[in-house]
Amino acid sequence: MGNAAELASAALLILGFPALMLAALVPSVPAFAAMAAVTYLADHYLHRKGSYLINRLSKVRAGLSIRFLIRQLLLVLLLARLSLSDDLIFYGAVACFIAFYGLQAPHSALVTLIRNRRRMPVATRNIDLKSRVRIPDAPPRRLLHRSAEKMLHLDLLAVAGILVSAGLPSTVAGFTGIGLTTGLGCLYVLVLMPYVRGRKIPPRPDAVLAAVDEWLTGYRPETVLYFSGSKDSAYQVNMWLETMEQLDTRPLIILRERVILSHLAPTTVPVICVPGGVHLMNLDLSTVRVALYAANVGKNIHLLRVPTMKHVFIGHGDSDKLASVNPYSKVYDEVWTAGRAGRDRYALADVGVRDDDIVEVGRPQLAPIRSRHGVPEDRIPTVLYAPTWEGWDGNPGNTSIVLAGENIVTKLIAADPPVRVLYKPHPFTGNVSKAARAAHQRIAALVEKSAAERAADSRFTADSAAMDRAKAELARTEARLADLAGTDGTKGDEAEATRDGIVDVARHEEIALLRAQWNDAYWRSFPSHEHRVIKGAQPRLYDCFNVSDAMVSDISSVVSDFIASGKPYAVTDSAEVGAGEFKRQNTAVRAAVILSNGAAELGGLLDAVRDPAADPLADARAELKQYLLGPAEPRSIDQFNTAVAGLALKAEARNVGRQSRPGAANADPAETAELTDAVPGQRTASAGETDSVGVG
Fold first, then answer.
1. Torsion of CA 679, 680, 682, 684, to 10 degrees
2. How many C-beta neighbours within 10 Å does residue 579 have?
3. What tens digit of pLDDT does each residue of 509-559 get?
4. Residue 621 neighbours by CB distance under 10 Å
5. Does residue 594 carry a pLDDT above 90?
6. What separation, in Å, do the N-terminal and C-terminal C-alpha atoms of the chain show?
7. Please, are residues 100 and 158 in contact by the beta-carbon 8 Å criterion?
8. What are the CA-CA distances from residue 25 to residues 74, 81, 168, 642 (Å)?
9. Closest CA to 362 of 555, 648, 625
10. β-strands 271-273, 123-125 pairing
11. CA 232 → CA 235, 318, 650, distances in Å?
12. Helix residue ranges per DSSP H, 136-285
């Protein structure tokens, strides 16, 4: 429902209009002016915040244009109550507001037409369309961004001028305001008109699609990562971008929603966003041999229907959740899992996925996680506490933060010999549960208080000069990153971003290098014994893994990923089902120290950190790591590339066999075109095909 400021603004807006009517009826020009100012400001604030409350008003016939019209009518009522209904200012006001309201139609029509024409059938990144089709510059952002609000607020000049004239003998201010409002409204409409004619009009959809096909013919993609989902699921495709960049084959990313494209992380891989199912099926993908799917969604069917490529479900992380064994997975030629655990998971679920169709490829995304090398003698051990959030269902087993968080942190801070605590909560913590939010705030305060106490403790020393140098390096790196962010080449609207959205590889590589340097300088910029609350996206979770010697967490992908480090870890049984049952239900905790909500078992974790030779779970962790994530050698990216190459050969063998069959001459011309390596024709959708096309 919004924060306190939004609620207060909404209340002022809603109550302001009855107050305006009262001021008009009294009549009182100063009161009317004051309440008009309140409604203008409250309306503007709520729009700037994108408030849910303001959006709901349009559902009860109190939308933006209606609110402005009511305010204008109330001003006319004020003039009538002031006995000015026979004066020219009254007729001027009525004529102005009628004309101004009439201007809304052409203005709205032009804005809609411009936006629709500039929304091309496909949007791309890292694809050279500029040399193939002319895409004009976008209109200045100030013309189209929040255009309705800008147009309506032009009435402020007329309202202010009329109110001044209502309180004074002269009508000069009123007619000046009326002239400015009407003139600027007309000017706004005239400025928009060039963008719907001549060379400012974007190319027709068929020209854009032809340009994309021309590029595809020259590029000849071999492996596609296909993704469809909501903006909240963008992380599921982002996690595969680096893997796609490291493929031995020519990669291509196909997205189905424009909102995903806007949330896609920077990449050097060519990207095509194709919202329309028919447009997707008409793209020339005849050279693609392997299609990778990161999520099980209905729109996958639009590519699954293409028989000339092999289809693989790669998912977005292995876990014991039901989503990891979705029966939908039967539609793919193969299902790739990280390790043996994924294979066994499907066997136990018995959802129809054959064991022969499962391939273990490791987790390429975990390559940045460094393995355990012991605690250097010149620093104290670091323990990361990374609880997950409370979830939507109120299950006490979701997170340890409410029932166990303070106990865990208190015991870690009081540990003797001492350890350093890093607290990195899930970014959604406290979004649903007030208890979780309060617990998080108490834990953060506890960590910060203990850090201040340790800073004043003479037993803990640090190299101030080295930290100052690190801070200076951090500042330089941040400044350079800010400079590069300001020259990222993205501007204008989607069409312009498609035209100009080719990544600068040198810049991309420099940013990656700078982020690594930032991370290194960050950890050197404060004492290695200092407790710290890790806020925001940086440093990343894997960076925290690499500077930690152990971790305490909850059942989530965080635990599965941390296992790649081989370091000791503890998981909290917040629902208190018992250690045996907890391990039976959750594969990832079989080599963990299981904590109760009182955290009495933390000593076992700390002992393993301080003396690796006496670590009773070391062998179990090594076995579990291989079971969940596969062998360390060959590298996961090499296993992945091998799997892609092997499946591509199967696809090619199928296609060659299909061509050599006696009935190939009578085959569907669309498929025959796909089976040739010559420049193929586009597949043309039949008359009945739509975005909800079925298999067949």
1. 160
2. 16
3. 899 899 999 999 999 999 999 999 998 888 999 999 999 999 999 988 889
4. 21
5. yes
6. 46
7. yes
8. 9, 6, 19, 81
9. 625
10. antiparallel
11. 7, 19, 35
12. 141-144, 147-152, 155-167, 172-192, 205-219, 234-238, 241-245, 258-262, 277-282
Distance CA 583, CA 579 (A): 6
DSSP 496-528: HHHHH----HHHHHHHHHHHHHHHHHHHHSS-T
Read off the pLDDT of residues 66-94 as tens digits, 9 standing for 90 and up. Answer: 999 999 999 999 999 999 999 999 999 99
The HSE-up count of residue 301 (CA atoms within 13 Å, CB side) is 12
What distance in Å separates the CA atoms of residue 136 and residue 158, rounded to the nearest whole number?
36
Strands 532-533, 271-273: pairing kind:
unpaired
Return the closest-CA partner of residue 302 out of 691, 40, 26, 627.
691
Q: How many residues belong to the chain?
A: 696
pLDDT at position 444 is 95
Instruction: Decide: 565 and 559 in contact? Cβ < 8 Å.
Output: no
DSSP 223: E
Quick one: how many helices (H) and strands (E) in the chain?
Answer: 28, 14
Beta strands in 203-263 (DSSP E): 223-227, 251-255
Q: What is the pLDDT of residues 116-125, one digit of tens each?
A: 988 889 999 9
Query: What is the Cα–Cα distance from 565 to 543, expressed in whole angstroms?
Result: 12
Place of tokens 């809304």: 104
Whose tokens are 């096309």? That residue is 693
Residue 439 near residue 406 (C-beta atoms within 8 A)? yes
236 or 323: which leads in pLDDT: 236
| Sheet with 550-553, side-by-side order of all strands | 532-533, 420-423, 382-386, 550-553, 569-572, 593-595
Tokens of 151: 């147009």
Is 170:527 a contact under the CB 8 Å cutoff?
no
Q: Which two tokens stand for residue 544?
A: 């925290």
**Rounded to the nearest 5°, which phi and psi values hold at 130?**
-60, -35
Q: In whole angstroms, what is the distance from residue 102 CA to residue 482 CA?
A: 45
- The answer to pTM > 0.70 is yes
- Count CA atoms within 13 Å of residue 323 on its CB side: 11
Q: What are the φ/ψ torsions at residue 667 (nearest 5 degrees)? A: -70, 165
